[in-house]
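Provenance and format

Records in this collection were gathered into a single text stream. Each protein contributes a sequence line and a token line. The two records reproduced below are adjacent in the stream.
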Amino acid sequence: MRSMAPIQIVLAVDRRHVTGCSVTMQSVLENVNPASALHFHVAVDGISARDRARLMATVVPRATLEFWEFDRSRVLHLTRSRIISHSAYARFFVGEIVPPGESRCIYLDSDLIVERDVSELRGFPLDGRTLGAVENLWAEEQAEHQARLGLSAPRYFNSGVLLIDLERWRARDVMRRALDAGARLGHDLILHDQDALNCTLDADWVALPSAWNVAVFNPALTGESAAVFHYMGAPKPWEVDYDGPFAEKFVKYLRLSPYAEVRPWNPAGLGRMLARMRRRLPSLGGTLRVLERRLRSPRNAG
């Protein structure tokens, strides 16, 4: 018998991340307690009817899914990069995506796999805070984030896996405050939605166990040591030039998904070669942001 209260899970996807979104949901389904009901909310930005059908087929009939149309015009003033698109900011809108009446939701990036029962995560105590997230534990980076963002303490979380108290999120107007923080930071919004949320929530979050969001490039990571394997950065494991760690874990769930037969264009290795060439070319927007930050640094003042 399934539980009466479905676990609410939110993801966001554009056309570049549909394969990853499907695999993330597939991994959740394969590892959840069968007694748990799941309801997925997918914020979509410019994906095709065919991809919508594939995403729906990923979960039905084992779970339910609703699409939420993401209006990117609400975040066009915020920075993006070659890796991070505007859809990353969709997590700001969880208070609109999940209808009133639900007390909590879990937000997941579309470039990770979950290998533990998400019902464990939903029940984690938030101690009266708005958010639970995994903390960045590199002290040097923590200090840099604190100085750059004006945080009250050298604590900074990764936004790829979030446990959210929806009532507090709405009551504290996190959506508007995060949008304002992103606009205020301008080119200092280096890590996009993550920077804005850290500024907005500052001391209003608790640290989840680190196993719930582990970067696959972490040298301490083993195949059995994490609940979530996060394929941060680029390339992604569904892209033609991925040669990073734990590809086999991603492929395991890919083969169970509606994208099992989808392969990137790579005749005679040409696709891989072109992808690597494109990644080596600096983007104009990124170059301009770096130059502006350097010109505004204290050593260049006066």
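Adjacent record:
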Amino acid sequence: MPLVLASTNKGKLKEFDELCLTTFSPQRLVVLPITQFSERFSVEETGNTFAENARIKAEAAMEISGLPSLGDDSGLCVDALNGEPGIRSARWLGDLATDQDRNLGLIERLKDVAGPSRTAHFECTLCVAFPDGSLVWGVGRCQGQITFEEAGSDGFGYDPVFWLPELNATMAQLTLQQKNQISHRTKAMQALKGNIISRQYVYLEEANSSAKKLI
């Protein structure tokens, strides 16, 4: 089954490429970037939930490619900030803010919050939109805490300030392989796989025929 990734974020694409290949066998899934079908893929995220935004992205990519497409929406939810930045994680301090701007802004907002109260979680919702109009979902969470300073140079986004007590490291101090063992995207992808199997979606490709159909 070909699966188009509805994102141009290089860090996210790298993670999903490996996640898809480790979750599904290469014989069952071929990952394609949306840039193969559109050089400038951009979707206005008008949803009020992670699920709504994931669906918007997936359906937009499917309309462009004509193939099953994966959209995701993910973000950081901080308990002391009543769930912020949440679905606004990438735009929390405005469109011109960098990852570091947002990380330092988060640390500043939590400067008076004690360690035990700095709990947070990453959340990811995945949606696959199929050409027949059907949708399949997967949701995952990763629990942690917000640090008092950035640490680590790998990953992207809020990874340098997201502390994993069980690993004694921030998300940005993990290798991609380590991150993909515990991340919210990994858990969402595993749930997605189970839901695809349970819905019995199989993409059929005949070796000597261009006819393709989804059953």
